[in-house]
Amino acid sequence: MKENIVIIGGGIAGMEAASQLLDLGYKPIIIEKSDHLGGHVAEWNCLFPDMTPAGDVVKNLVTRSAGANIFLNTEISFVNKLKDSYNIMLSNGISIITKIILVTTGFSLFDASKKEEYGYGIYDQVITNKDLEHWFNTGDDKRVGDCGMNAVGFVHCVGSRDEKARNSQCSKVCCITAVKQAIEIKQKFPEAMVYCFYMDLRMFGKKYEDFYISAQRDYGIRFIRGRVSEVSENIDGKVIVKAEDTLSGKPVKVTLDLLVLMAGMVCCKDSTKVANMISLPVDSDGFLKSRDNVTGIIEAPKEGIFYAGACTGPKTVPETLAEARAAALNVHLYINRMK
Asked: Which has fewest Cβ within 10 Å: 61, 138, 158, 339?
């Protein structure tokens, strides 16, 4: 009899792991709380640095993982630890006995309204990276483009690298996401002035530096090193941003039609919920704690529990997919050792 393998989360990590396990001859079970697969990526328009359509990536993963037992609109009600296995009770009343759980619960975006100085939820023309991505994907947001876009600004590191926000860690993808979205804005509004306010630019990934150089050279996007100190609104409903250009040592004041806050990644409540149910440790950054951060990133400290993707920290799409493949192989090897 094949072992039950329960995957908690139907984002790209959960689907990729499921597709690999299907190829290895298993019939994994995906538990997804929403009414669709794909997680955050299903809500994005295109992916850096190649502008790959996000929908194509999700569609491919949905097709490859279709052989799994998939429960949508389903949550974990509670988990009982048995002698050498777990009894997982689902919100639909189904109970699953398993020795293997793969957690792929992903991340949440930092609540930008907590940084009141940036005006999210206060000024109409201040939005987040998620809001803008939704507009790219659907065209459905009256705050973007209705009155033309003469000037647009992006603020990096909103809720990341910020002790006051209780998140000192870098969210890893905010810089490159800002570059991507800034280019997309220029493509849609070629005459617009576009500004990126950053602390440090962290272009660590393959082709990221080329992408950044292209943003300056080919699109004329202006990068200003310095924290935004004040955001306000004028009588016309435009956003006034004050900052200091730390490279020139001069203050900067710009009037914008739209200000986009690059909200960082934080651990989602679903990860915390699962951790509490199974008594899994949480790391100092709020994400789930792996066995170690070098060779055991996809393994929990508890026997039979595995991780993949952003439940353990900020990840890019390629990193998430790679971890999902590695976790599937580790699950396979673990099952073979149990025999």
From this structure: 339
Residue 219, judged by CB atoms within 10 A of its CB (0-12, 13-18, 19+), counts as middle
Per-residue pLDDT tens over the stretch 157-174: 998 988 877 788 899 999
Residues 288-328 have pLDDT tens digits of 999 999 999 999 999 999 999 999 999 999 999 999 999 99
What are the residue ranges of helices labelled H in 218-305? 269-278
* Closest to 195 (Cα-Cα) out of 186, 204, 207: 186
Q: Which CATH number fits domain 112-265: 1.10.357.140, 3.65.10.10, 2.40.10.170, 3.50.50.60?
A: 3.50.50.60
Phi, psi of 103 (to 5 degrees): -90, 120
**pLDDT tens for residues 216-241?**
999 999 999 998 999 999 999 899 99
CATH class of 5-106+268-338: alpha beta
DSSP calls for 283-320: -TTSSBPPS-SSS-TTB-SSTTEEE-STTSS---HHHH
User: Domain residues of the chain, as ranges?
Assistant: 5-106+268-338, 112-265
Contacting residues for 69 by C-beta, under 8 A, at least 6 apart: 27, 28, 29, 30
